[in-house]
């Protein structure tokens, strides 16, 4: 059974003549990573917003632990927000510059009402930082004191602190240099294996998906045009659109 899924999901923005997402189905399996690729306007961000329950589909449904996600079910929504955590594109913009790292990483625990006393909360925060390769000395520092790669590690630690089942990563390495991209991809892959995490990653860079993701979904104009195991899709794409993406996008240095 999938942890998180879209089933025939369609989303139309108010006043738009065409759907931003049109009848898309996908499944996020436990311990596996799914890459969503496509050009700007293909529906990638809309799909992530649906998976994060930030948007409700116009048609179709979102499934969480095999059950339809019901908008009015507050208990189900709380479970999803703890189990499904985002990692955003820009580590410079996603961390509050006025907050120290200890407060940044603890923020989801506070906002989701996770009941921990001060000592246990500090220990949980320190554990999350250690998992991403940062020591306790980072707790009292501010975001501007870190490199871009370290900031993204802090953002990942913040996502891990609630012990999620799924990470939703929106272009998580696009703002980083090539060497740091590889390091962060390797970190995400290690966390997936060690924690049994599921990962959904949107990327415009096919080589990033090749390096991290078990499965891939190709979107074009809001529709799914190709999907399957990453190696199969990227080594022998059937659709001309997929072939064009592979040929046109700069490589990270990791071949499918």
From TrEMBL:
Domain of life: Bacteria
Family matches, as InterPro entries: AAA+_ATPase, ABC_transp_ATP-bind, ABC_transporter-like_ATP-bd, ABC_transporter-like_CS, Oligopep_ABC_C, P-loop_NTPase
Residues annotated as domain ABC transporter: 4-246
Annotated signal peptide: none
SUPFAM superfamilies named among the record's database cross-references: P-loop containing nucleoside triphosphate hydrolases
Keywords, ordered alphabetically: ATP-binding, Nucleotide-binding, Transport
Family: Belongs to the ABC transporter superfamily.
Identification of the protein by name: ABC transporter domain-containing protein
Species the sequence originates in: Tessaracoccus lubricantis
């Amino acid at each position: 059974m999938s942890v998180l899924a879209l089933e025939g999901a369609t989303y139309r923005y108010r006043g738009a003549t065409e759907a931003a997402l049109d009848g898309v189905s996908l499944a996020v399996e436990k311990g596996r990573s799914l890459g969503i690729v496509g050009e700007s306007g293909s529906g990638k961000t809309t799909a992530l917003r649906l998976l994060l329950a930030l948007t409700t589909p116009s048609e179709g449904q979102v499934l969480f632990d095999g059950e339809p996600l019901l908008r009015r079910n507050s208990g189900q929504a709380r479970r999803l927000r703890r189990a499904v955590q985002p990692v955003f594109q820009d580590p410079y913009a996603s961390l509050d510059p006025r907050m120290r790292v200890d407060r940044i990483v603890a923020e989801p625990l506070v906002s989701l009402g996770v009941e921990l006393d001060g000592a246990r909360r500090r220990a949980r925060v320190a554990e999350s930082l250690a998992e991403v390769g940062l020591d306790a000395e980072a707790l009292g520092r501010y975001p501007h004191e870190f490199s871009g790669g370290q900031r993204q590690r802090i953002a990942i630690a913040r996502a891990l602190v609630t012990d999620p089942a799924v990470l939703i990563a929106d272009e998580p390495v696009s703002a980083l240099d090539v060497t740091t991209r590889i390091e962060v991809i390797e970190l995400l892959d290690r966390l997936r294996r060690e924690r049994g995490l599921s990962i959904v990653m949107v990327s415009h860079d096919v080589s990033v998906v090749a390096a991290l993701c078990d499965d891939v979904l190709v979107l074009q104009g809001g529709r799914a045009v190709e999907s399957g195991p990453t190696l199969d899709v990227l080594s022998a794409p059937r659709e001309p659109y997929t072939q064009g993406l592979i040929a046109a996008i700069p490589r990270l240095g990791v071949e499918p």
